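Entries read chain and fold; for instance:
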Amino acid sequence: MSPLAPVENGQEMAARLRLACETHDVSIGAHLDRVTGYADEIARRMGLSSEDRLFITQAICLHDIGKIGLPLTLLHKPGRLTPAEAEIAKTHTVMGHRILAGSPWPILQCAAQIALEHHENWDGSGYPYHKSGLKIGRDARIAAVADVYDALSSPRAYKPAWEPDQVVAEMQRLRGVKFDPEILDVFLARLPVPVVAGEG
């Protein structure tokens, strides 16, 4: 067996699982493409190896795979979620990890960690396990920056797209609170990053 076979197989499985996400929520594809681009740019600026960049860009598409277990009425609800609805929505991290964990393929191992930890915060205030600082995996810390940047920059059912200066100001406010300061600084240092805003 070729030493590259596990990577290749992991890529195919990641692609198929992404299709499952898009089958459940047809609006998510553009969001996944943008987040992948931002994450790859962060990884490149951090000087990560081509293999690490491959793993991150293939894996990050599955960061919200746990949402296939949530109803679309919840995911696309206009306006704020109730506290009870918000708690249900938070379960997508654990559900995503359950779907991906235990794989022998590095891409899916990376995806499992991202799915579980991309809503953990640098200061420990996130979920599901209130991890903090370097206890949060590097790839999940990269995913958090990429995901939030796109979420703020793009229109959602509950809000319009924010202006670029508003996005940067909010992310800087959350430096060292939600985001790893070093990763955020790497990302923001060379903005503007090209954004194709849209639903998703």
About this structure: Confidence is low (pLDDT under 50) at residues 1-5, 194-200.
